[in-house]
Amino acid sequence: MKARVTVTLKTGILDPQGKAIEGALKSLGVGGVASVRQGKVFDIELEGADRAGAEAALKAAAEKLLANTVIENYRIEVLG
Amino acid sequence: MKSAVLVFPGINRERDMARTLKLMSGSEPAMVWHADTALPAGTDLVVVPGGFSYGDYLRCGAIAARSPIMDAVRAHAGRGGFVLGVCNGFQILCESGLLPGVLMRNAALKFICKEVYLRVERSDTPFTRGYNTGQVIRVPVAHGEGNYVADAETITRLEGEGRVAYRYVAPDGTLDPRWNVNGSTNAIAGILNERGNVLGLMPHPENHIEVSIGPTDGRGLFAGLTQHFAKVA
């Protein structure tokens, strides 16, 4: 079973890397960029086919390691 | 003072720390591997040194904070045992939940390797008793992620409970955004946990110890801890 965990910075947390990317996009002349926030994507292959079990495992992975919930939010997707 | 220095893959300041602990306390620290599950019996002080544990993968300190030895460190702190985290060690303590908040990328995005000035905010803790309150010390920093961030409630608590032990200041001891090198909230350089037995600090006092190298302003931190344990014993 394939799954994806996306980790993004919470609103209000300063993201200097996103700001730098935003600046670079603007200097490249890419139009219409209002702001950039950088996050992380984890593609995870799970054993077994139990969807509820998979969601529980992904939640544990995100809470225990993949996201620092002081500053980050996460989203879990089971892609099937 | 019986100390233990933790060693993780990618750590590179553990020998500086061990040398300083030996010089200042008179006894050789134990070097404890991350995969170990116990600290040497009778350890007074656990030191989490600086470096780049696990290559800063995922987030600085994130993987090291979940290694087996950290359960023993949490138990040690829970019993009132002392823990000092410097640089990557501070990041590891935040990631392990022993200290609140997180160290983000420096506001100016650059790795900073230079000397900074710190103001000692209080001298009535074992981690600061080697200094006077308000004393300004000169110590080096070397980090890319030292920008201390926490939610507003946590910052209010830290300030209200006097848990900011060290702050980045100008050489005359005044707060000045130009001297807050990494953009930390309230120029925070070092914080204590609620109980006062865990300190996390971004700068490297262990590198300003010996006259042959230069300034010796870092001695106070280790001298204070040594005095504390001499008194306890």
Radius of gyration of chain B, whole Å: 16 Å
Secondary-structure element pattern of chain A, one letter each: EHEHE
The CATH class of chain A, by name, is Alpha Beta
- Largest sheet descriptor of chain B: 9 strands, mixed
Task: Sum this structure up briefly.
The complex is a heterodimer of chains A (80) and B (233). Chain A is α+β, with helices and mostly antiparallel strands and 80 residues long.
Keyword list:
heterodimer, A: 80 residues, alpha+beta, Mth169, Chain: A, 2 helices, 26% strand, elongated, B: alpha/beta, Rossmann fold, nine-stranded mixed beta sheet, two-stranded antiparallel sheet, globular
Structure commentary:
Chain A has about 80 residues and is of the alpha+beta class. Chain A has a single domain (about 1-80), classed as Phosphoribosylformylglycinamidine synthase subunit PurS (Mth169, Chain: A, 2-Layer Sandwich), CATH 3.30.1280. In chain A, about 35% of the residues lie in helices and about 25% in strands. Chain A contains 2 helices and 3 strands. Chain A has helices at about 15-25, 50-65; strands at about 1-10, 40-45, 70-80. In chain A, strands 2-1-3 form a 3-stranded antiparallel sheet, covered by helices on one side. The longest helix of chain A has 16 residues, at about 50-65. Chain A starts with a strand and ends with a strand. Chain B is α/β, with parallel strands linked by helices. Chain B has one domain (about 5-230): Rossmann fold. Chain B has helices at about 15-25, 70-80, 90-95, 150-160, 220-230; strands at about 5, 30-35, 45-50, 80-85, 100-105, 110-120, 135-145, 145-150, 165-170, 190, 200. The longest helix of chain B is centred in the C-terminal third of the chain and has 14 residues, at about 220-230. Chain B is globular and about 45 Å long. The mean pLDDT of chain B is about 95.
